[in-house]
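2024-03-11 09:14:02 DEBUG pipeline.ingest accepted 1 chain
2024-03-11 09:14:02 DEBUG pipeline.ingest length=203
2024-03-11 09:14:03 DEBUG pipeline.predict start
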Amino acid sequence: MARRAREFREEAARRRTVRHYSSKAVPLEVVEECVRAAGTAPSGANRQPWHFVVVSDPEVKARIRVAAEEEERAFYAGGAPQEWLEALAPLGTDENKPFLECAPYLIAIFAQRYHLAPDGDRHKNYYVQESVGIATGILISALHRAGLATLTHTPSPMNFLNEILGRPSSERPFLLLVAGLPAAAAEVPAIGRKPLRSIATFR
């Protein structure tokens, strides 16, 4: 048990967020298996309040990029507090998001606030944000385990995803996950992670 725990921790520590992607194709089967893994996440009342839209169509990715960059321009031009912009500065991010077109896959993750029964009645889902967050974490880990890099992208607001991807108003965009192989010259920021005693207390 200790060995398996250590091996998983060592593999998780190698995961890095990547912003520069190769356009090299990745078999859809790989992503399908990772989404299946995400679907095993625990959820409130086992409602499984998530929906994953896997996008590989270049035209759809281009539309998503245009809409996302519009929101990002507003963010960087004054929508974000200065303190937030200063925190982002070391990461080298800006309103330009070429990875939304370069990467082979975008996975739009939606949170379902309620579901409709066969008779049309609306039934509330429970602990939706928590459940979808856990499923997203499993998805990121699964993609990393498969050898793919990811980037979590959250332009705000993200309502354009409902329109572009044809999702109902009962679903709220949770996160846009970029997935693929890193570009040959990809660079990542030099970051550290807090030690165990800074993130956990054992009593």
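2024-03-11 09:14:41 DEBUG pipeline.report The mean pLDDT is 94.
2024-03-11 09:14:41 DEBUG pipeline.predict end
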